[in-house]
């Protein structure tokens, strides 16, 4: 069952102001809202990188971190991450860990759609096989974290702007999470 998603509107202090339908909210004047971003790893420490489907309203066809989304009213961020992982990539996850809980960004895609989010960043372990939802993800790749971080440093424009910014601000935490999984 697909629910009609909303975004939780926030003020600059992160206090809830209300909700708005997700697609109506994302325009050239997108209000500040709550989101999440997740970096998913295999037990070997490899990171899942996904390419957004061409049907996505913002940044279609762009390579990005594993799964992103918006918590719904009454849902914890961790519950939202689990829900979106099941929906987008058909995967079960464990060890959900906040790695950049205060992350916030505002970016405009080439078509003029703005993302304006308080977007805590998480890492988690994938504990099942993938079943990719082609409405969300057009391609995916497992990448060694060191190679991914080098690519992000060399060509940040080749990835979503939030992914590049998250990697820059949480590189140590990403490396630590991947290393602990691989032990």
From TrEMBL:
* Nudix hydrolase domain mapped to chain residues: 31-165
Which residues carry out catalysis?
68, 117
User: What cofactors are annotated for this protein?
Assistant: Mn(2+); Mg(2+)
Annotated binding of Mg(2+), by residue: 88
Q: Which GO terms describe its molecular function?
A: isopentenyl-diphosphate delta-isomerase activity; metal ion binding
Query: Where does this polypeptide localize?
Result: Cytoplasm
Q: How is the cofactor bound?
A: Binds 1 Mn(2+) ion per subunit. Binds 1 Mg(2+) ion per subunit. The magnesium ion binds only when substrate is bound.
Any one annotated GO CC term? cytoplasm
Report the EC code(s) recorded for this entry: 5.3.3.2
Q: Which UniProt keywords apply?
A: Cytoplasm, Isomerase, Isoprene biosynthesis, Magnesium, Manganese, Metal-binding
The pathway where this protein functions is: Isoprenoid biosynthesis; dimethylallyl diphosphate biosynthesis; dimethylallyl diphosphate from isopentenyl diphosphate: step 1/1
Which reaction is this enzyme known to catalyze?
isopentenyl diphosphate = dimethylallyl diphosphate
Protein residues bound to Mn(2+): 26, 33, 70, 115, 117
* Any one GO biological process: isoprenoid biosynthetic process
Role according to the record:
Catalyzes the 1,3-allylic rearrangement of the homoallylic substrate isopentenyl (IPP) to its highly electrophilic allylic isomer, dimethylallyl diphosphate (DMAPP).
- What is the protein's given name? Isopentenyl-diphosphate Delta-isomerase
């Amino acid at each position: 069952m697909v629910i009609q998603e909303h975004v939780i509107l926030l003020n600059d202090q992160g206090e809830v102001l209300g909700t708005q339908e997700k697609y109506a909210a994302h325009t050239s004047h997108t209000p500040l809202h709550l989101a999440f971003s997740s970096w998913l790893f295999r037990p070997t420490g490899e990171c899942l990188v996904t390419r957004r489907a061409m049907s996505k309203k913002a940044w279609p066809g762009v390579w990005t971190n594993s799964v992103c989304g918006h918590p719904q009213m009454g849902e914890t961020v961790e519950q939202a991450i689990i829900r979106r992982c099941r929906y987008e990539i058909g995967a079960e996850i464990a060890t959900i860990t906040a790695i950049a809980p205060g992350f916030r960004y505002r970016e405009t895609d080439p078509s003029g759609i703005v993302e304006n989010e308080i977007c805590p960043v998480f890492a988690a372990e994938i504990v099942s096989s993938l079943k990719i939802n082609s409405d969300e993800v057009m391609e995916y790749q497992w990448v060694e974290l060191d190679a991914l971080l080098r690519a992000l440093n060399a060509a940040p424009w080749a990835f979503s702007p939030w992914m590049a910014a998250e990697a820059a601000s949480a590189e140590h935490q990403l490396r630590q999470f991947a290393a602990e999984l691989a032990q």
